[in-house]
Amino acid sequence: MKICHNCLKQIDDNDALYCSKCGTRLTDVPSGSDPLVQGRKKIAKILLIALPLNILIIGGVLFINKGCSKVEGTLVATGEPMGNFAFVPKQCRSGQHMNFFGAVILGAGPQDGAVVPFMDPAKGKQVKVEVPGSCEPPDYEKCKEVIIDPKYCSQYDVVVDKIPIMINEIFMMKGHLNLDCTFPGGGTAKGTIIFDRCN
After folding, report:
1. 140 or 65, which is more confident
2. Closest Cα to residue 192, out of 169, 174, 176?
3. What is the distance between the alpha carbons of residues 159 and 103, in angstroms, rounded to a whole number?
4. CA distance 91 to 109
5. What rounded mean pLDDT belongs to the chain?
6. Residue 33 and residue 101 in one domain
7. Distance between CA atoms of residues 52 and 59, nearest Å
8. Angle at Cα 100 formed by Cα 94 and Cα 101, nearest 5°?
């Protein structure tokens, strides 16, 4: 009995020169080797290469889909106490980096400000605004900050939730804020910002 080394079909005719299934020349089988064993080794090599490659591809897709923050919307302020600006978010970070339950929604650059929705254990939902253009060099970490008091707002919808996905032991955050506020000095803050996958 012969075995085709290409399709692994067993050939009962010992005088056959070609495989009846795939047409492979049967005399091309290397002497001293079992084609069935060679076929299994070939499959094992393919699996050995394909499995880690598939894991890398799947992991990359998951990282790209889950690892990048998503923000949209605007917050427009006029007058006191914040000044005149239109904040456009570009990215966000989980507040867990700075030991609070919330998110830091950042503008494009170090002078473009930030909006920080968070949960205060005593006061509940809060929104802090780092006023664009007010941050001081060299590291732009010290900025004029205004916490928006809900009593001045006809609409104060702030939602901050934890996503059950961790990256480097930091939970991702999602939520939104919808504000329509008028302050005693005549200033306003209005806008909607939606944030997701903040890590």
Report:
1. 140
2. 176
3. 10
4. 10
5. 86
6. no
7. 10
8. 65
β-strands 2-3, 10-11: how paired?
Answer: antiparallel
Per the structure block, which two tokens stand in for 58?
A: 């799947």
Write the CA distances from 73 to 89, 107, 144, 176, integer angstroms. 7, 11, 22, 10
How many angstroms separate the CA atoms of 102 and 125, rounded?
9
CA gyration radius for the chain?
32
Q: Looking at the predicted structure, is the pLDDT value of residue 149 above 90?
A: yes
Do 54 and 146 fall into the same domain?
Answer: no
- Quick one: 61 and 78 in the same domain? no
Strand partners of residue 102:
118
Lookup: tokens for 171: 């939970």
Distance between CA 199 and CA 118 in Å, rounded? 15
Segments forming the whole domain that contains residue 154: 68-198
Give the distance, in angstroms, between the CA of residue 157 and the centroid of all CA atoms in the same chain.
Answer: 25
Q: What is the pLDDT of residues 44-58, one digit of tens each?
A: 788 778 777 777 777
Report pLDDT digits (tens) over 56-97: 777 665 555 545 789 999 999 999 999 999 999 999 999 999
Instruction: Round to whole Å and give the CA distance between 29 and 144.
Output: 80
Q: What angle do CA 180, 185, 188 make, to 5 degrees?
A: 20
Tokens 């106490």, residue located? 81
Find out whether 148 and 181 touch, Cβ atoms under 8 Å.
yes
Q: Please tell me the pTM assigned to this model.
A: 0.66
Q: Are residues 74 and 61 in the same domain?
A: no
